[in-house]
Amino acid sequence: MAGPVQSIERAAAILRLLASGPRRLGLGEVAASLGLAKGTTHGILRTLQHIDFVEQDPATGKYQLGAALLHLGTSYLDVNELRSRSINWSDALAARSGEAVRLGAPLEGRVLIVHHVFRPDDTLQTLDVGALLPPHASSLGKVLLAFGSLPVEPVVEAGLEAYTRHTLTAPERLTRALAEVREVGWAAEVQEMISGEAGIAAPIRGHGGLVVGAVGVSGTVERICDSQGVPLPGLVTQVRHAARAISRDLGATRW
User: Fold this and answer.
1) How far apart are the first and last CA of the chain?
2) Which PROSITE patterns does the UniProt entry name for this protein (predicted)?
3) HEC states along 5-21?
C-alpha cells in the first residue's frame, strides 16, 4: 500500500493552522509554526491560493482561509461568528422596521435560523433559533439558493413541497425566481410558507464576496407588503442596508 503524500499532508497542516486562529498569518509565521522551509511553505500557499482555498490580504501579505472552503465544510465561517457579527445590526433593523428579524445560514440543504430578534411590541412570539426552514419557500432560503450557498439541484430533486397554494413547487418557476433574486439583490416570500405571512431577505457576504448567510424581516402580509402584495420599498432598503453592514463587518469588500 502506498504511503501518505507529503505535499498533501503539508497543505492540510497549513489549512488546519489557518483555521485554528482568529487572525491572518504571514509566510514566516506559517513556516515557523509547522517547521517548514519558507520556500516550501510559499509554494504550497501559492497553490492553495490558486484554487481559492487560501486568500492573501493585499495590504499585509498575510494569509487566511479562502471562500471556496465554504463548500467543503464550516471552517471558513463559523455560524457563531456570523451571529456575533450580526447581533447589533439585527437589533437595529428590528427597531427601525418594527418587524421580527431572523438570520439564516445554510445547513444540509435547509436554512438554519442562527439568530432571531422579536418584533418590538407586546405580542406573543416564539423563538425560532435552531429552526430549519425550507429554502424554496422562504426569503432567507431563496437568497442562499440564488447565490450558491445552497445547491439548487438537491433541493429540486428532493421535491418542492407545497406549504401553501403560493409555494413555488415547479422547478422552472423556482429557477425564474432565483434569477430575479440575483438581478435585484434581495428575495421575498409572500404567503409561500405560512398563509398570511411575508418576508424580505438580503445576502450577507464574507471575505471574497461569497454569500455566507442571509438576514431578513418577517411579519404579516399587511405589514410587509402593500395592497398589491408587493414588498414595501422602505423595508427592502432597510434589510439591504443591514445586510451590507454585516457584510462589511465580516470583511466583504463587495456586496
Assistant:
1) 49
2) HTH_ICLR (PS51077), ICLR_ED (PS51078)
3) CHHHHHHHHHHHHHHHC
